[in-house]
Amino acid sequence: MKNMWSRNIVRTLLIGATVLSIAACSGSGVSDLSKDEMQDQIKEAFLNSQYAESGKFDVGFDVDLQSEEVVGSPAENLVVEGSFFGAYNSIDKELGTYDSSFDLSGTGSYNGSEPMSVDLSVVMKEESLYFILNEVPTLDDPELASVNTMAALFKGKWWSVPVPAEVLAQTQDTTWLTLPPESDDLTEEQKQLHELFKAAEFFESVEFEGTESVEGVRSDKFEVTLDAEGIFDYAVSYGEISGDPMSVEDEESLKALFESSEIEMEVYIAQKDKYLSRVVLMVEAESTDSEAPGEMSLMFDFVLTQLNKPQTIEAPEDATPFDLGALLGAPGAGGFELN
Fold first, then answer.
1. Half-sphere exposure of residue 228, counting CA atoms within 13 Å on the CB side?
2. CATH architecture, domain defined by 3-325
3. Of 83, 10, 84, 86, nearest in space to 250 by CA
4. Which one, of 4, 74, 6, 21, lies nearest residue 234 by Cα?
5. What's the confidence (pLDDT) of residue 58?
6. φ and ψ at 249, to 5 degrees?
7. Contacts of 201 (CB under 8 A, 6+ apart)
8. pLDDT of residue 90
9. Rounded to an integer, what distance in angstroms lies between the CA atom of residue 135 and that of residue 154?
10. Helix (H, G, I), strand (E, B) or coil at 61
11. In degrees to the nearest 10, what's the CA dihedral of 226, 209, 42, 232?
C-alpha cells in the first residue's frame, strides 16, 4: 500500500490506543452526573486501570484499507481480521515493565486474493523475549522466495532474544498516557503531566446506555463522542512537557488525520471495581494525501478481565537462542548473506 497508509495507520492506532486507555468510568449514579463530573470519573478510572499490576486482555480487530487508482498506481484493497489476547504481570513498578504472554492470529486478503493466515505466540519473561510462528503463509511471488525460506526456519520452534530491562521499558511505554502514581516523590515534570491530564478535555459527550454483562462482570454501557481537538492538544502538550515534542510535520499530519476521521465508541465499565471491561472502537478515515486518495476502516473490540489478579507467565523451556549469523548459515537458507 502507499506510504500514506503506513504513516496514517500508525497514527490512527495511537489514537485508538489513547481512546481505549482513557475510556473508563464509574457506573454508580453516572447518568445523573454533569459532563465535567463524568470526565473526572473517567480519568480516575483510567488511572485505576493503568496502575493495575496484572490482568488479561482480549482484542478482536478488523482493518479495511482501500486506495483509489491514480496515474501509475492501480487501486488497492487490503482486508485483515484477527484477534490478540494474553496476560501480564508487573515486574518493576519504577521502570514500568511487565512479564507478558500473548497470541496473535489473523487472516488477510489483498485485492480479493485467497485469504492467508498468520498465527504466532510471544512471551516476555524477565529480560528475554520468546516467540514462535505457529502458522505462516507461503507467498507466491518469486521475488519473495527468501521470505518464505526465512519464515520456514522460524515456524514450529520457540526462539529467545535477550532484551535489556531499559529497552523493554521503552517498548512497553504508552505514548501520551504514561503517568506515574501521584506521590510526594514526583518530579516537577511528572507533576506538570498530572496537571495536564486533569485539565484535558478528551470527550465531547458521554451518554449512559444501561448495563450489560462482560465476561461475567456487570458493567455500565456508554456511548462516547471523541473530542479530537482535545486529544490533539493533550498529545502535543504532553510531548512538550516530557521533552519529546512533535515535529511540525507530525503535528500537521496528526491534526489532518483527526479532521478526516470519524470515531465512534461503545464503552463498558465494571460496576464494582471501576475499570474498563470492554470498548468497541470504530474508526472511518479518509486519506490526507491528495496524491494517494483512499479510505481506511478500523474496528477494535477490547476486553480486560482479572485486573490485579496474578497471572501465570512461563518461559518456554525448549527455546533456542536467536543467532542471526548461525540462522542465515543454516541448511536451506541459501541466498541469505550477511553484509
1. 13
2. Clam (2.50)
3. 10
4. 21
5. 96
6. -65, -45
7. 39, 227, 230, 233
8. 85
9. 10
10. strand
11. 0
CA gap 183, 67 in Å, rounded: 49
What would you report as the CA-atom Rg of the chain, rounded to the nearest whole angstrom?
A: 22
Whether 16 and 298 have beta carbons less than 8 Å apart is answered as yes
Partners of residue 119 on adjacent β-strands: 105, 135
The three-class DSSP label of residue 84 is strand
Q: How many residues does the chain have?
A: 339
Which grid cell is 258?
A: 483527526
H or E element, residue 199? helix 188-199
CA distance linking residue 296 with residue 316, whole number of Å: 38
DSSP 182: P
> Do residues 157 and 330 lie in contact, with contact meaning Cβ atoms separated by under 8 Å?
no
Determine the pLDDT at residue 173: 54
Is 271 exposed, middle or buried (CB count within 10 Å of its CB: 0-12, 13-18, 19+)?
Answer: middle
Give me the residues paired with residue 263 across strands.
Answer: 283
Which residue matches cell numbers 501520551?
A: 176
User: How far from the centroid of its chain's Cα atoms is residue 305's Cα?
Assistant: 17
Distance, first Cα to last Cα, the chain: 28
94, three cell numbers: 519504577
Task: Give the global pTM.
Answer: 0.78
Nearest CA-CA partner of 266 in 277, 281, 255: 281
Going by the DSSP 8-state scheme, the letter that residue 332 receives in this structure is: T
CA–CA–CA angle 191, 193, 196 (5° rounding): 110
Residues (pLDDT < 50) of the chain are 1-15, 17-18, 20-28, 330-339
Alpha carbon distance 139, 120 (integer Å): 17
Q: Where are the domains of the chain?
A: 3-325
* Rounded Cα–Cα distance for residues 118 and 122 (Å): 13
